[in-house]
Amino acid sequence: LDNYVPLPKLKSLLMKILSNKQINSQLINKYTEYLLFDDILFFTWKVLPSLTAKSNPNDVYIMNYLLLLEKLQVYQNSETNILCGTEEGSFFTFDETVTIKCLNKIWHCVMLWEHTPHTHKQLLIVMLEKVLPHLEKPLLLTDFLMDSLDVGGPVSLLALQGLFNLIQTHNLNYPNIFVKLYSMFEPEIFHTKYKARLFFLSDLFLSSTHLPENLVAAFAKRLARLALIAPSEDIIVICKFIGNLILRHPGLKCLLNNPNCSAANTDPYIMEERDPLRSYAMSSSLWELETLQHHVLPNVANAAKFINAPLPRVEWDLGKMLDSTGDDIFDREVKKFSKLIVLQFEKPNGATIGKGDRVMQYWNL
């Protein structure tokens, strides 16, 4: 069977692709065209374990390896095409159990390599998109993903998505996950392009109605506090996010009108506390939302006014708001027609000319 595909030449080609001197992204993209042939795809998987470095390779080799791995699929192509065969036809059979076994074997080595921030990010991308569903023991990734949460930036968000997959698919129970998630909500998140992913994943993590109310209250309070310094488009998302948390946990309605806490100077909430359960959020109130009701932008002010009306029965869909920008809010505002057109700053008392007007300096009436 192996004689149909020249394995020595295939191995030599892959050795050139997996260079440790230069990134071969264009060469890998060209090689992807041949991966449409089932025999080339299958034997690429079979050859790859022998080319996987056991010790720590340099970051160039690692990046080439991950870029190639990202292009490989463990399943047979939808249309069966054979590149190497005889005129009488090939008896080649694509065995998916072999490709999955090869994937698990090489991934064990890849995880032991020392990664730079760039290769660390690429590793998580490949893991989420290609590897995770096929690992024999995916829960072994838990500690690696938890450590990745401390890296910050896109690495943390990719790790958060991996943890959510483990929780949802493999019933992972990791007690510190919500403490890690809570610590990710910092003012800097509003200035990154990955904030939409954080809001989306956080909404999924906090979707369970069985979470402790004091834990959810801490997230609601932290979001409300961050909304005071957030861009206008993010304030709207935060208001709806907090509304969803209150809908899932009706006990949080006490935060809407707590008479013992109506301003910052009487607020017991500790923003600097890392542990959400020790932040005294349940003794606080969402006075920040009342403050935002006086925002200069009507859309933002109206979003914060949901606390003054009965809550809806259905949650707000955050997915439709995550892609909104400040330009979108501006465009909606300029399209509105005002019924009250202001011609001067001071309302006149009669038919006389307004105060401070200079018309009389140039006209005799």
From TrEMBL:
Q: Name one GO cellular component term.
A: small-subunit processome
User: Which residues does the UniProt record annotate as the domain CCAAT-binding factor?
Assistant: 156-304
> What is the protein's name according to its record?
Nucleolar complex protein
Q: Give the family this protein belongs to, as stated in its UniProt record.
A: Belongs to the CBF/MAK21 family.
Lineage: superkingdom: Eukaryota
GO annotation, biological process: ribosome biogenesis
Q: Which InterPro entries match?
A: CCAAT-binding_factor, Noc4
Q: What is the lineage of its organism?
A: Eukaryota, Metazoa, Ecdysozoa, Arthropoda, Hexapoda
